[in-house]
Design brief:
24% strand, six-stranded mixed β-sheet, 10 strands, binds adenosine-5'-triphosphate, 9 helices, single chain, 2 domains
Length: 263
């Protein structure tokens, strides 16, 4: 089993706040892993470091044999780390096809000069991009809305388009940040099925942040649990579910919330 991502003692400080503290985890190729934890636990900050959005304050990350400290943040997508965002980050006035095409930009090597001198290469890249986008549209079962303007689509459909855009960059590792929050049960089940197919049919390893415990428990191979920036547990869904530290982290959060409400 090949380790695709290794995170060692990763930390991130925002001024005096330790958002992520000494977190270590490994993701094996072909796994679906989840990162869970109460609000403010540091999950998104961890994802932002793994996807190059934030530079860590300390620690080390290795992806597919490459030390990520040596990779420019703008190259993370090109080396195979794709992601979706907690809040939709789509071009609302663009069509579904146009939005998914933007995910291909990391694969376009041609620049303006190329476009003038080597028209052939630009043209073949364009054809490859279009073919990839068509394949994704079929895979995500969104042929019927391919030419629709994204802003007119339902939230669930927009989330599917965002997933398509992340797939367009042909990631080896796909980071999914709260894909199903705000979705109804049917949309949630669709996403769970797509995540399984992304791993099984496209061979892409998945690391997801998720609050919806049913999807976490149903489809994860491994679960990593954060609380107050630290990793407090790791294991199979069944192991994590019966870990007292995990129950306490969630109950503690609810108790604090209840105290705030009562105050
Ligand atoms: N850019 C920032 N500047 C300052 N503090 C930040 C910043 N980003 C996150 N934080 C703080 O870091 C901590 C961890 O936040 P983070 O968003 O990573 O948690 P989370 O587990 O993803 O939470 P949620 O489940 O609510 O999305 C929080 O206390 C948050 O307020």
């Amino acid at each position: 089993m090949t380790r695709l991502l290794t995170v060692e003692n990763l930390s991130k400080r925002f001024g005096g706040l330790q958002a992520v503290v000494d977190v270590s985890l490994a993701v094996t190729q072909g796994e679906i892993c989840s990162v869970i934890g109460p609000n403010g636990a540091g999950k998104t900050t961890l994802f932002n470091m793994i996807s190059g959005v934030l530079r860590p304050s300390g620690g080390r990350m290795t992806f597919d044999g490459t030390d990520l400290a040596a990779v420019s943040p703008s190259r993370f997508a090109a080396i195979g780390i794709g992601r979706t965002f907690q809040n939709l980050a789509l071009f609302k006035h663009g069509t579904v096809v146009e939005n998914i095409l933007t995910g291909r930009h990391t694969h376009l090597r041609s620049n303006v000069l190329d476009a003038v001198i080597f028209f052939g290469r630009t043209r073949s890249e364009e054809i490859a991009a279009r073919q990839r986008v068509e394949h994704i549209i079929e895979f995500l079962e969104i042929e019927h809305i391919r030419d629709a303007v994204v802003g007119t689509l339902s939230y669930g459909q927009q989330k599917r388009v965002e997933l398509g855009r992340a797939l367009a960059c042909e990631p080896k590792l796909l980071l999914l940040d709260e894909m199903v929050s705000g979705m109804n049960q049917e949309e949630t089940e669709d996403i769970a099925r797509f995540v399984l197919d992304i791993r099984d049919e496209l061979g892409i390893t998945v690391l997801m942040i998720e609050h919806e415990m049913r999807i976490v428990m149903d489809i994860s191979d491994r679960v990593h649990v954060l609380n107050f920036g630290r990793k407090i547990a790791e294991g199979t869904p069944a192991e994590v579910r019966r870990d007292p530290a995990v129950t306490e982290a969630y109950l503690g959060g609810h108790r604090a919330e209840a105290a705030r409400v009562e105050a």
